[in-house]
Amino acid sequence: MYLLLMKRYVQALALLASVAILNGCVVKDISRTVEHTVKGDYYLKSEKFDQGRDSFKAEVEENPYSALANYYYGRFLLYDKDYKQALKYLQKARDLDPGNADYHFWTGIAYAGLKNPAQEEQNYRQALRINPKHLQSLVYVGHSQLEKKKYHEALKYYNRALEIWPGSPSALYNRALIMKRLGRTPEEKLAWHEYLSIYPSGAMARRAAANLNYLGDFAYRNHKLGPRTITTEKIYFEPFSPKISQASIESLNLVGGVFEKMNKGKLQIVTYQKKNKPLAQKRAGAIKKYLTEEFSGLSPGRIGISWFADPETITIRKKKLKIDESVSFFITQK
């Protein structure tokens, strides 16, 4: 990757040099700017933070008045959690080039590390004065307002961020959280669904699914499989039938794939179908059959099934909820 980036750097430098010569300009400063940008972005994207820090430390020593060198050195110091030193270099970059919104934003991040929320927010807002569509600043001003419980203000900034990037994970999640705190239940449900449709896994997905379940919406469920808890969509079947809906294949593949990698334990499949025990039994059998056929590492002996004609009862934050039609997965030792 680095060779490709350097090739682009050389091409860009050649173009800049030709323009500079035509205009009687000096290309030295322009070339250094391009080189710093390519090299800095390379170290950040490849997560080679130690190398980046050492490289830009030398750059700053050689050229202490380079805004870009100070900026990247400050960025790498943030990864060391050396917020005080990071602030020093990010402030210098900001002061050398006050019209760069990124420099103000990252100065704000350094203040966040130093637990100075007033200066933190001030820098984000300055970035937005320079560039009203600066995505990171919109999100982080939203965070600042959320922490201060200014929910409507926070929502305004998150919505502006989502207009720029509809997939912003923190903006999507916190929008749902704000709806929850404002008691706007229909919008809260919609917001959790939007988050989970894009980010269906991870800790935040588990919390989103739990929040939906608390509202009586079981379109997503959390299942504890040994040391892991996974989030799946509800398991659907064809109406009045044990035939698994095609829409649920991805969720079943997730369950099967996770369990297949485990060396011990038995996967338990439990189906609930209110007032219809035969259908519950057939559906449990259909899921077991699918998993054993789809995953070579899952023998019939590694999967147990149970079925009930009663609703499933779950408890979320001390609230008991009943689900008339559901499928649950967990692991036992035998």
Describe this structure in words.
This protein is α+β, with helices and mostly antiparallel strands and 334 residues long. It has helices at 2-22, 28-45, 49-62, 67-79, 83-96, 101-113, 117-130, 135-147, 151-164, 169-182, 185-198, 203-214, 249-260, 277-294; strands at residues 220-225, 228-233, 266-273, 303-308, 312-316, 319-323, 325-332. The strands form three sheets. The protein has a three-stranded mixed sheet with strand order 4-3-7. Helix 6 (101-113) packs antiparallel against helix 7 (117-130) and helix 10 (169-182) runs antiparallel to helix 11 (185-198). 33% of the residues are buried.
What does the secondary structure layout of this molecule look like, with pairings?
Layout: H1 2-22, H2 28-45, H3 49-62, H4 67-79, H5 83-96, H6 101-113, H7 117-130, H8 135-147, H9 151-164, H10 169-182, H11 185-198, H12 203-214, E1 220-225, E2 228-233, H13 249-260, E3 266-273, H14 277-294, E4 303-308, E5 312-316, E6 319-323, E7 325-332
Parallel strand pairs: 3-4
Antiparallel strand pairs: 1-2, 3-7, 5-6
Helix pairs in contact: 1-2, 2-3, 2-4, 3-4, 4-5, 4-6, 5-6, 6-7, 7-8, 8-9, 8-10, 9-10, 10-11, 11-12
Oligomer state equals: single chain
Share in β-strands: 5-15%
Strand pairing plus helix content: what structural class? Answer: alpha+beta
CATH class of the largest domain: Mainly Alpha
Strand/helix succession: HHHHHHHHHHHHEEHEHEEEE
Instruction: Choose one word for the global shape.
Output: elongated
Q: How many structural domains can be distinguished in the coordinates?
A: 2
Q: Give the rounded overall mean pLDDT.
A: 89
